[in-house]
């Protein structure tokens, strides 16, 4: 069996079905992951999957690999990713796998892995890769003491009840939902109706081909249908979910997109009201308003590296009650077990907004500045990692006040910031700029432009 080692990414395992991932590879990864589970003296693993067509067989073969080494499998079927996370907590195993391609194109699939309460990333993913290579150099007739058992569990109702018990809406809200034909569609419709909302839904039937639009709420064009739905039906707001239900998009009744860093501000105030002085974690791509807001409301802001696995690990390390990143992953660790969960985040948002006569007015009042979306810089003559390292050491930013190098380089100014960081998932540099006005934005971008071109004049800058 030939293994394409490009499937091993920074935060997960993923690739093109049939070309890079197949049933045999899933079975083999199940074996090596199962061996790691045994090393932790854990006996049970939860497995679930999204709605992609390859998911059912991939789940079966991965489960067979786990069972081959003696791991018992609890299969909870087609569910959003956070339902699997919650199940690992509910069954007290801390160990699970989600067969999901997340928001990637329809011909992709992949794996998100949890072991003993930790989401695997970085070196842990590389260990899976190394163990998989070693497996194929071992005796093909490996023997283990026993074959693990497998049971099917209809688990979503337990997860849904836990959210309903945790969240209290003061009044019913009229909301729109767009799941982009991802796995969060039926789950979100059921949950929010049971919370008392009047739900207007778009693309909530699961279809792994994603025929209407790509299930990625970070892309504004994917929110246009939801915006029309909210405005045309005079709804209070709209919620959008990514392909596997761990990232949330929000739009107001006027069609304004409330990006995740602004969502995080609203949640931070709520959490800090009950847990004053707490540390709130945000990633380097978030607005400069986030740390200011957290401090103003009695919290301690902590900027951290981008990546849902990295944010989750930091939250666990310092036991922070809340964390979030610009991509839409929000982590609640006050009334919830501390994993990224778009359905729960949506419920908590509605809990806050249900106290307001004009919910969208509260959302639109949150601080914001002029900013760019994520800009992607392709590198041809120099690697994206080397470019950012040289920018750290050679970049000249004369009007800056601070340079933060925790993840790439984030250059702070009195009136904004500029960010350049190497992507951990694709070979490019991600850039983002924010400023109080267009004049300040142009000044910041010009300093970055000069510094980048001084390193490589051939760069085609996206700004």
At the first level of CATH, what is the class of the largest domain? Alpha Beta
Percent in helix? 25-40%
The CATH topology of the largest domain is Alpha-D-Glucose-1,6-Bisphosphate, Chain A, domain 3
Anisotropy-based shape: globular
Distance between the termini: 45 Å
CATH superfamily of the largest domain: Alpha-D-Glucose-1,6-Bisphosphate, subunit A, domain 3
Structural class: alpha/beta
Low-confidence stretches: none
Measured on Cα atoms, how large is the radius of gyration?
A: 22 Å
Largest sheet: 7 strands, mixed
| Average predicted confidence as pLDDT | 96
Integer tally of domains? 4
Counted by DSSP, the helix tally is 14
The count of DSSP E runs of length 2 or more, i.e. the number of strands, is 22
**Relative strand content:** 15-25%
Q: What is the correct CATH architecture of the largest domain?
A: 3-Layer(aba) Sandwich
How is the secondary structure organized here?
Elements: E1 13-16, H1 23-39, E2 44-49, H2 55-68, E3 72-78, H3 81-90, E4 96-99, E5 108-115, E6 118-119, H4 123-135, E7 150-152, H5 156-166, E8 174-178, H6 184-194, E9 198-202, H7 224-232, E10 237-241, E11 248-252, E12 257-258, H8 260-274, E13 279-283, H9 289-296, E14 300-304, H10 308-318, E15 322-324, E16 330-332, H11 342-353, H12 359-364, E17 370-371, E18 375-378, H13 384-394, E19 402-404, E20 409-413, E21 416-422, E22 428-435, H14 438-455
Parallel strand pairs: 2-3, 2-4, 3-7, 8-9, 8-10, 13-14, 13-15
Antiparallel strand pairs: 1-5, 4-5, 5-6, 10-11, 11-12, 15-16, 17-22, 18-22, 19-20, 20-21, 21-22
Helix pairs in contact: 1-2, 1-4, 8-9
